[in-house]
Structures are given as structure tokens and as C-alpha cells.
Specification:
heterodimer, A: about 90 residues, alpha+beta, four-stranded antiparallel sheet, 5 strands, B: about 280 residues, alpha/beta, four-stranded mixed sheet, 10 strands, about 55% helix
Chain lengths: ~90, ~280
């Protein structure tokens, strides 16, 4: 199953909607920072994520950006940042 | 088809639940998030700090967790609690309903096991196989041949083979849960916890032996196992080697498990027709 890397960033004015969006994105993200999430998604998952976030946010007050990342590009990281990865299996240790 | 999450004690990770995902902290690295949605099975090796929320998160997602150490003398499997009987529990009981059915199951399992054992021998002793195919071949022959093929002590073999078998078992339990079969209702291992999972694992013995033999082909030069006082244990490097080899063949192993479960359902239908 092919997955593409997307960066999802949000700016949400209401605490309740902010928490709902954060909780939802935690189910799809494999990295990122406090309001920027790295998500490897299939086309179907992307459509679902878009629909779900659209249902949470207020169109008049909040904004969410979904950036599609080029699969050939390499992320430059500084400090303790790590390269975004979508491994075949997860190994911690 | 979910991925496997391996957590080893090597880097002393601390793991806790964070909503629908887990958050992993390791010394010297930025925190990592792993969504439970992407994980199909979890294997925890050694003494790892994790909160109970992590276990309930995976249980909610119907994901089995295997706990083991690098000597595999302590093994535990966590599966989600379900107050209802599994979907096919009643049909499955037909295996134990008569002596004929038990014998039928044992014959079927024995044949499947022998097929996988023959695949192993075909790979390592291609010249001897035609002879076995003519004169016949039994469990005793297999164990004797395996002893000569493995070229390591019994303890070394058990240390590695048990880890590989545990990983296989985790995949088997995952598939049994998904297919609605009761993993505890075994025939060969009846009245054992995880009886059916052990039965399927018995059938797949040839595959786990194959991966163990392949491991021992290169282990000496690479320092993949070691001995402390009385016990042999697999080093971190060895564990990675086992995991890497298993993951490379995971799709094939899963295909084999699916095939065995399909035949189990066929067997149930056959016995129902015979009794009905």
C-alpha cells in the first residue's frame, strides 16, 4: 500500500476544537511537532482525514494546512529531529 | 494488514499512551509517536517501562501483545478480553466431539506439518529427498536429520528457536482472533491455554526451524548469541537479525497461516456434513 507523506498544520482558536483536532491527528501521525503533524497516508485515508477535520473546525475562525511532501526530497533536521519514516515494521531499542 | 511493533529494552525506552497512539521516549532521541491503527501485533523484549494505558490501547484495537526476554524463559501473551464466546466457538467444538474427529484433526495436522518439514529438507538436502519420498518419512527421521543439520548444541538451538516460535505464535494468535476462532480450543494441545494457537504453531514447525537454521548459518562470525553462566541468550544484534529475517518473510508466513485457517474451516464443514 503506497503512502505519501503529508504535513498537517493547524491554527485553531477554540480549546475544545483544538483538542478534538489534536486527538484525531494523533491517530494518524508518526512524527512532527506540537501543531505540525507528519502523516503517511493513502489516498483513502487522506480523503477521510480531510472530511473529519472539516467536520471539527469552524470554517469562519480556524485554519488547517495539508502540505503534500515530495517523496524524493530529504528533510533537513537540526537538534534531536529525526527523518520522517514509514517503515515496514517498527523497532524500538 | 498491520505492522509489527518490536520494543526492546536496549535503549531503555519509556512508553505511554497518548490518545489513539503511543508515545516513545528514548535517551538522546526526539520522542516518537506510533499510531495504534498502524500496528497489528506487538512484541516486547525484556524489561521495558510502559504504562497500563498502552496495553489497553492495543487490547481495544484487538492487537495481541507478546512479552518475552532474550532467553525466552519468561513468555506471556496478552489478548483482548471479550465476554462473549468467539464467533466460531460452537463450530470449533466439533473437533473434540468424537474420537474419530480428534484423530481426523491429528492426521490433518501431522500431514501439514510433514509438508513444511519436507520443504526444509528439500532446501538443505536436495539429493536425499527423492529417497524419503519413496520410502516414507516420519517425525523421528526429521528430528534426527535436524540434529545433524543444526551443528550447534541443544541449548543454543532452543534459545534461538523459542524466540522465532514466539514471533510466529504472535502472528497466529492475531489471525485466530481476526477469524473469530477461539485460540484456546486446541485439539493436539487440548486443555492448554492457547491450545489452538499451539496446534497451528506445531503445524508450522518446519518454517520456524528453517529460520533458525538460517540464523545459525552466520551467527558465529557476527556474535549473535552469547552465554552468561548457564544460559545462552540472543544478543541485541542477534535479535535484530531474527526480526529482520522474519519481517522479510512475514507476508509468506501470514499467507501460510491464512491457508491453515482456511483448511480448518473446511475441516469443520466436512465434519459437520459427516455428523449431520
Amino acid at each position: 500500500m503506497n503512502r505519501t507523506l503529508f504535513l498537517i498544520a493547524y491554527d485553531i482558536t477554540d480549546d475544545k476544537r483544538l483538542n478534538q483536532t489534536r486527538e484525531f491527528l494523533k491517530g494518524y501521525s508518526t512524527g512532527g511537532q506540537k501543531s505540525v503533524y507528519e502523516c503517511f497516508l493513502t489516498d483513502g485515508e487522506l480523503a477521510y482525514v480531510k472530511r473529519a477535520i472539516d467536520g471539527i473546525i469552524d470554517d469562519e475562525e480556524d485554519r488547517v494546512h495539508i502540505f503534500t511532501m515530495d517523496g524524493r526530497s530529504r528533510t533537513h533536521t537540526l537538534g534531536i529531529g529525526v527523518q520522517p519514516k514509514d517503515p515496514e515494521y517498527f523497532y524500538i531499542g | 494488514m498491520g505492522r509489527t511493533l518490536y520494543i526492546s529494552q536496549t535503549s531503555k525506552p519509556v512508553i505511554f499512551r497518548d490518545g489513539p497512539s503511543i508515545w516513545v521516549q528514548e535517551e538522546g532521541n526526539a520522542g516518537r509517536r506510533i499510531p495504534a491503527r498502524l500496528v497489528g501485533r506487538v512484541i516486547i523484549i525484556g524489561n521495558v517501562k510502559l504504562d497500563s494505558g498502552t496495553i489497553t490501547l492495543f487490547a481495544e484495537n484487538n492487537t495481541p501483545i507478546t512479552f518475552m526476554n532474550n532467553r525466552t524463559d519468561e513468555t506471556a501473551v496478552v489478548i483482548p478480553y471479550n465476554h462473549r464466546l468467539p464467533d466460531h466457538y460452537k463450530e470449533q467444538k466439533i473437533f473434540l466431539s468424537s474420537k474419530e474427529n480428534i484423530e481426523h484433526f491429528e492426521r490433518w495436522a501431522g500431514t501439514k506439518r510433514a509438508c513444511l518439514q519436507m520443504n526444509l529438507l528439500r532446501r538443505f538436502l536436495p539429493k536425499l529427498m527423492p529417497r524419503f519420498e519413496t520410502i516414507g518419512f516420519g517425525e523421528g527421521n526429521y528430528q534426527e536429520i535436524l540434529k545433524t543439520l543444526r551443528k550447534v548444541s541443544e541449548q543454543e538451538w532452543i534459545a534461538v528457536n523459542s524466540i522465532i516460535t514466539n514471533i510466529f505464535r504472535n502472528v497466529i494468535v492475531e489471525h485466530l482472533l481476526k477469524s473469530g476462532l477461539d485460540p484456546h480450543l486446541g485439539v493436539i494441545h487440548r486443555r492448554h491455554n492457547f491450545g489452538l494457537a499451539l496446534d497451528v504453531c506445531y503445524i508450522m514447525g518446519g518454517l520456524s526451524d528453517l529460520q533458525t537454521l538460517q540464523f545459525f548459518n552466520t551467527y558465529r562470525v557476527k556474535n549473535l548469541i552469547s552465554k552468561d553462566r548457564a544460559h545462552w541468550f540472543v544478543t541485541d544484534k542477534g535479535m535484530r537479525s531474527i526480526i529482520h529475517r522474519f519481517e522479510n518473510r512475514r507476508a509468506a508466513v501470514q499467507g501460510r497461516v491464512e491457508n491453515i485457517l482456511d483448511e480448518l474451516f473446511d475441516l469443520i464443514r466436512e465434519m459437520q456434513t459427516h455428523e449431520g
